[in-house]
Write a structure and sequence with these properties.
Radius of gyration: 32 Å
Strand order of the largest sheet: 2-1-3-4
Helix content: 25-40%
CATH topology of one domain: Rossmann fold
Structural class: alpha/beta
């Protein structure tokens, strides 16, 4: 293959016919951007400006070349789809230097084109190897050159004893002479790794010492600001005020914050301030948004946002944009994209440890393991299933070999997460560890595979028809037991409620599909695609066939006045409604104060009339004044339509039904009950009212004073040994810190499910661990800080506990009892006193908001 860099020779101006747009980037230092601009315009190119309001390309049709240092800009996918040249700024400089335009392919900023900056020639390599090297090079963005020219960046050779290498050395050319092993390892990993261990004349790769190079410093730029998918605090903005005046990162963006982030009003106001200061706005309807921020990727709104081509990211991504004041795609960094709610299938039983990654890289991999659904372990034991390492030199690697534990590099974890599917470990790229190389240098370069996301949506064709149960208001399905019987069964109103929240307006426009992309120092262990798309389509067709009846019914219902979500209820033989003029059903532009939408249509039906008239009442809802948690409300049991209508009425009064105990301001129940909702909500010290208060709200269409309807239940108070007013007084002092610092273990066999007890413990500031008797489990004594008045108040309610008692909440089944001896051994090993108790112990603590030990709940 000869040199194929030059494709045209210009007789007129060098860049005649070139219409270019420059994408601003932090990599443009000083006046470099202006220099590129002048080079282009001085040689006949015409500039196409960015839209000043949105920061996007204003005229993509006219543009022929996009100058960008990275593929990470909003219009990149659209540019590829329209066959526009996206090139690095070096393309301009090379063309000017050579006096003719060069192949733009070599200057692609696509991160998949790992050899895009490389022009390679081969010296004393066998002909068959030369063809293989050239084929791989061209496939990954590089260019080949037969003779040695000034543009050559790499010479592949086995030694310096050849004419080409001698010539390069004699003329002092700025090219690297590497062993072919470097190219092989790059191809295996599909990552461009450091050339230094492979450089001739004295390659470190051939030395006897297999350890990684000590001077090979690793930079973690690719994971900066993307190590935690669920940040709890807003990071400081790292840019100066002068820099912020140049680019408004949220300029022209309309951002919707999803309810699944469980953000309180105070943080929401902070986010709104950040977005507005960056030139954007917060909206509460998806059809108005251009950007959707959520935590999980399995909701109806996520699917709708994806199908309509909106930018979708998580809170970490939003913080990153604000901190760096530079727009970046949420798919570039894995932990900037919404997580799978239940992890990646296959990871749930994995115990994964990490070796030879430090600092941010270690935090990033730990977060990625947890997001994938696996269990991260700081130390490694025989129970571990996988070890992820940057190279093979560590105590953990030696132990993993001895214990027959899978050893892989981080690419296996990253690509499993990116492709939404656990990757096979038989792929050699996941078990490749080049000598003298630290793979930490290529961490974070894997991007979210949007094709895999689309395949998942294809496997769930009803996702846009049915709502995600996790996003709707519903009662608990695994509640705490009361008097030996289950409480609060699943609410059948869940689906109906969510459907009533969906809006008919503008849903017909949500059909576009975005274009698919082009493609610690110290001792570490205690002891010495296309076929995929085709398969997804086949699975989707199968699912659609199974769901044909439901889809047909959905299409039938959508033709009714108001559609599926706003259509009036009717019997199967009821009269048909007359179509209402579309102007009467338009959605108002008023933005709501909550995630709920506009009130439902008030249906006016005349008995015996041939045709029913529909009147649409649209009023702006009042701001939320109370967040109500309801449990055991009999009027809603098995009555989903009644529940949905009542919830809507309450929202019109400024009352939002919440499922989050931390947000609850009013707790409503018919009596004192031991349900998950009731017990967890007590920790927030809400006002506790009887269901009479709720009846009064719905009956009189106004909010009565909670003091007039306080819950009084002397019978249950006496039976349970609590005083509800004293409980709330203690809860206010505890401030959800009653069990702060407590590590409580729980078996799977406890009545009501261990997740219930986990919620109660966490609501009170503690930590709950599922106990299965594994020897690798560790525990630590509690430390108390009693410096402030609040700390002293909490300490008063923690009883006489000195922090040396280790609790196990257990069932009384055979499997649970078999774990007791192992638990006692764990406590003894940690120099703690074991206590094995019934679930009633925790319920008594939570409902008293005080640690009281009566002894009657002990099991051992």
């Amino acid at each position: 293959m000869g040199e194929d860099l030059d494709i045209t020779v210009n007789e007129g101006p060098l860049f005649e016919g070139v219409y270019f747009t420059i994408i601003p980037s932090p990599s443009f230092k000083g006046d470099y951007e202006q220099k590129i601009f002048r080079e282009l315009t001085n040689h006949g190119a015409e500039h196409v400006a960015l839209n000043p309001r949105t920061g996007c390309i204003s005229n993509m049709q006219k543009t022929t070349h996009i100058i960008s240092a990275t593929s990470d800009f909003a219009d990149y996918s659209a540019a590829l789809e329209k066959m526009k040249h996206v090139v690095k700024p070096s393309w301009v400089e090379t063309c000017v230097e050579k006096g003719k335009t060069t192949n733009p392919r070599q200057f692609s900023p696509d991160p998949c084109m790992i050899f895009s900056d490389i022009v390679l020639t081969c010296a004393d390599i066998p002909e068959g190897d030369v063809e293989a090297i050239q084929g791989g090079l061209i496939a990954l963005g590089g260019l080949c050159s037969g003779p040695l020219t000034k543009t050559v960046t790499h010479i592949v050779a086995l030694s310096m004893d050849n004419e080409m290498c001698s010539m390069a050395k004699k003329k002092n050319l700025k090219c690297k002479i590497v062993l072919p092993h470097w190219f092989d390892d790059c191809l295996k990993l599909k990552r461009k790794i450091d050339e230094r261990p492979y450089l001739l004349p004295d390659p470190e790769l051939l030395r006897k010492d297999p350890s990684p190079m000590k001077h090979n410093l690793v930079s973690y730029d690719d994971i900066q600001g993307a190590t935690d998918p669920s940040p709890r605090e807003v990071p400081d903005n790292s840019t100066s005020k002068d820099e912020r005046t140049k680019i408004d990162v949220f300029k022209g963006k309309k951002i919707m914050i999803s309810a699944d982030l469980d953000i309180r009003d105070r943080l929401l106001k902070t986010l709104e301030h950040l977005v507005k200061s960056g030139g954007g706005s917060i909206v509460n309807r998806l059809d108005r948004a251009t950007v959707y921020i959520c935590k999980y990727r399995d909701s109806y709104d996520f699917a709708s946002a994806y199908k309509s081509g909106k930018e979708i990211g998580n809170l970490s991504w939003l913080y990153y944009l604000n901190a760096h004041n530079t727009w970046t795609s949420p798919t570039k960094r894995l932990l900037h994209y919404p997580m799978p709610r239940h992890g990646i299938p296959g990871f749930e039983d994995m115990r994964i440890s990490i070796s030879n990654y430090t600092g941010e890289a270690r935090i990033y991999l730990e977060s990625l393991v947890n997001a994938a659904g696996g269990q991260f372990t700081k130390t490694m034991k025989q129970e571990n299933t996988h070890l992820i390492t940057a190279h093979m030199n560590s105590e953990k690697c030696e132990a993993a070999r001895e214990w027959n534990i899978h050893i892989v590099n981080h690419l296996w974890l990253e690509e499993s997460y990116a492709k939404c599917e656990m990757q096979t470990m038989t792929n050699p790229r996941y078990t490749t560890f080049p000598s003298r190389t630290n793979l930490g240098e290529v961490i974070g370069q894997t991007q979210i595979d949007l094709g895999a996301i689309q395949d998942q949506l294809g496997e769930n064709p009803q996702l846009l028809l049915e709502t995600n149960m996790m996003d709707v208001d519903q009662d608990e399905s695994e509640p705490v037991l009361d008097d030996g019987g289950p409480m609060d069964p699943p609410s059948p109103a869940a689906t109906a409620t969510r459907r009533q929240k969906l809006k008919k307006s503008k849903t017909d426009n949500v059909t576009r599909t975005p274009a698919a992309p082009r493609f610690v120092e110290g001792k570490e262990n205690e002891t010495p695609s296309t076929t995929g798309s085709r398969r997804a389509k086949e699975r989707a067709i199968s699912h659609l066939h199974d769901a044909a009846k439901d889809i047909a019914q959905y299409e039938k219902e959508s033709k009714r006045v108001g559609g599926v979500t706003h259509g009036r209820p009717r019997s199967s033989d009821g009269p048909k409604t007359k179509e209402v003029d579309s102007k009467k059903r338009q959605t108002p532009d008023d933005e709501d104060d909550d995630e709920d939408e506009e009130p439902l249509e008030d249906v006016v039906r005349k008995k015996g009339a041939k045709r029913a008239k529909t009147t649409v009442v649209k009023e702006k809802r009042p701001p939320i004044g109370e967040r109500l948690m309801v449990t055991k409300y009999e009027k809603w049991l098995e009555k989903p339509q009644q529940e949905a209508a009542d919830r809507n009425k309450l929202r019109n009064l400024g009352i939002h039904i919440t499922e989050s105990p931390a947000d609850c301001t009013i707790l409503c129940a018919p009596r004192i009950v031991r349900t998950r909702k009731f017990v967890t909500a007590l920790a927030t010290a809400p006002r506790v009212v009887s269901t009479d208060w709720l009846d009064s709200c719905l009956r009189n269409n106004k909010i009565p004073a909670p003091k007039a309807h306080l819950l009084l239940d002397r019978i249950e108070e006496g039976r349970l040994g609590i005083k509800i007013d004293q409980t709330l007084e203690r809860a206010k002092k505890n401030n959800r810190k009653l069990l702060r610092g407590w590590q409580i273990f729980c078996t799977e066999g406890v009545t009501g499910g261990w997740e219930t007890y986990k919620d109660i413990i966490e609501a009170n500031g503690g930590m709950c661990n599922l106990y299965k008797g594994r020897s690798s489990m560790t525990a630590s004594k509690r430390s108390f800080t009693r410096e402030t008045q609040e700390d002293k108040s909490v300490a008063d309610n923690q009883g006489e506990d000195e922090g040396d008692t280790l609790y196990l909440i257990s069932g009384e089944g055979k499997k649970d009892k078999e774990l007791w001896s192992k638990f006692k051994e764990l406590a003894k090993k940690e120099d703690m006193v074991p206590r094995i108790v019934k679930g009633d112990w925790l319920l008594h603590v939570a409902m008293n908001q005080k640690v009281v030990d009566t002894g009657k709940n002990n099991l051992d």
